Amino acid sequence: MTARREASAPPDLPGYEYVRVLGLGGFADVFLYRQHLPRRDVAVKVLLAGSLDDDVRQRFQTEANLMAQLSHHPSIVTIHHAAIAADGRPFLVMEYCSRPGLAERYRAERMPVPEVLRIGVRLASAVETAHRAGILHRDIKPANVLTTDFGWPALTDFGIAATTGPAAQTIGMSIPWSPPEMLAEHPGGDERSDVYALAATIYSLLAGRTPFELPGGNNSAQQLVARIERSPLPPVGRDDVPQQLQAVLERAMAKHPSRRHASAVAVARALQEVEAALRLPVTPLDLPDDPGGAAGDTRSDDDATRLRGVAVPGAAIGRRVDDEDATRARAVVVGRPTLVPPAPAPPAPPPVGVPVGPEPRRGARVAAAAAVVVVAAVGTVLVTTLGGADPTGPVAPTDSLAAPQTGPAAAPVPAPHSLAGTRAADGAVTFTWQNPDPQDGDRYLWGVLAVTGEPTLELVDQESVTVPADQGTGEVCIQVSIVRADRSASARPAQGCAP
């Protein structure tokens, strides 16, 4: 025990001040440091002194290179720096994600279905981005999804990742979230193995347990492997989880890879359709804006899996089964939300709009053109799936959101203007706005903005709302979208604040 404490002592890093331990893992420990210039809190992952063999060093270097390659994505943890400490231990300086990660939440609370759907779409976007770069994660699970200061999921721990090329090593992952092919005598997997683990993670968030775990039963590794290989996926067991969502998870976690969604973006689109069927704001995809990967593209599943290989150091990577190597952190107090100005109008208007919520945490890096593509693709599916005679009926999950448009393009729905708030003597804040193009059946989708999470959205008929005093301490900011009778909505909500 004493040797373990000495091995995990925080290294002396010039330019950084040690604060406390964040998490302990099988090969590395994570510490909170305060960087002096620029001044900020960072998470520092340090290899254990007893784990410095060549394979582990190579894995650590691979993790640094892969995460640096992908960390521009809003749902992948950012790598700031990698180096060797004075005591010879390699370390990574990473973005500090201050809020509780998914491993801390999924067993402790009943996570709302709308939040799980948002998390699922954003994680699927991150996984798809990695796949398009030729990288398999191979260890997707709640413990490897942190939460940023602004409430966004952030995928981390690419330590056992590999390339998607034919020479890729395909061993690793943690048993409760692993697909059958990764647990075989001769493990092998591809993008569809990550699809399975992604869906297994979403299942855990909904069920509060791992997919094949029996509450109060025998959940040894041997029993879990047997159930994963042979038992059907149990129902989530929640009345508020629609059958359509259960069907998405069952397909993504099919025993044979050929029966799953063939890409992470196909899972994201299926989850978006569930959001649309539940009349929720559809979470946009965060995908590279390139010819083969523009957000909202309509490639088939077969096209989505034709990924280029990349040369990544570290082919010899061992198996890992430790489950909780995640950053632990405390909440922080942050300032007012960043209000996003409306995007410039595109040359050709999209078919319809859809409320997309606040910009991502790295919104400045997301091109306005990509946002327009997302709105066009998602808006089409809202009209296609919700515009029928029975808007409450289930929508069959498919692999493509972008349905062909058979009629003339609808005019884009404008955002409200003149949004302003007035605080009453009792502390409540009343916001009013104007509809620049009122039509029969118009309603308004609104919610209070917060920098630490997503707004809870409500539909109202009138052009005003009141935020109660107990929700309106300090500056209060809201967003408002116009929703037409056909359920099309403003491409970007109006946003405004009151002191």
From TrEMBL:
<feature type="compositionally biased region" description="Low complexity">
    <location>
        <begin position="283"/>
        <end position="292"/>
    </location>
</feature>
<keyword id="KW-0808">Transferase</keyword>
<feature type="domain" description="Protein kinase">
    <location>
        <begin position="16"/>
        <end position="278"/>
    </location>
</feature>
<feature type="binding site">
    <location>
        <position position="45"/>
    </location>
    <ligand>
        <name>ATP</name>
    </ligand>
</feature>
<keyword id="KW-0723">Serine/threonine-protein kinase</keyword>
<feature type="region of interest" description="Disordered">
    <location>
        <begin position="389"/>
        <end position="413"/>
    </location>
</feature>
<keyword id="KW-0547">Nucleotide-binding</keyword>
<feature type="region of interest" description="Disordered">
    <location>
        <begin position="283"/>
        <end position="302"/>
    </location>
</feature>
<dbReference type="Pfam" id="PF00069">
    <property type="entry name" value="Pkinase"/>
</dbReference>
<keyword id="KW-0067">ATP-binding</keyword>
<dbReference type="GO" id="GO:0004674">
    <property type="term" value="F:protein serine/threonine kinase activity"/>
</dbReference>
<dbReference type="InterPro" id="IPR011009">
    <property type="entry name" value="Kinase-like_dom_sf"/>
</dbReference>
<dbReference type="InterPro" id="IPR017441">
    <property type="entry name" value="Protein_kinase_ATP_BS"/>
</dbReference>
<keyword id="KW-0418">Kinase</keyword>
<protein>
    <recommendedName>
        <fullName>non-specific serine/threonine protein kinase</fullName>
        <ecNumber>2.7.11.1</ecNumber>
    </recommendedName>
</protein>
<dbReference type="InterPro" id="IPR000719">
    <property type="entry name" value="Prot_kinase_dom"/>
</dbReference>
<dbReference type="InterPro" id="IPR008271">
    <property type="entry name" value="Ser/Thr_kinase_AS"/>
</dbReference>
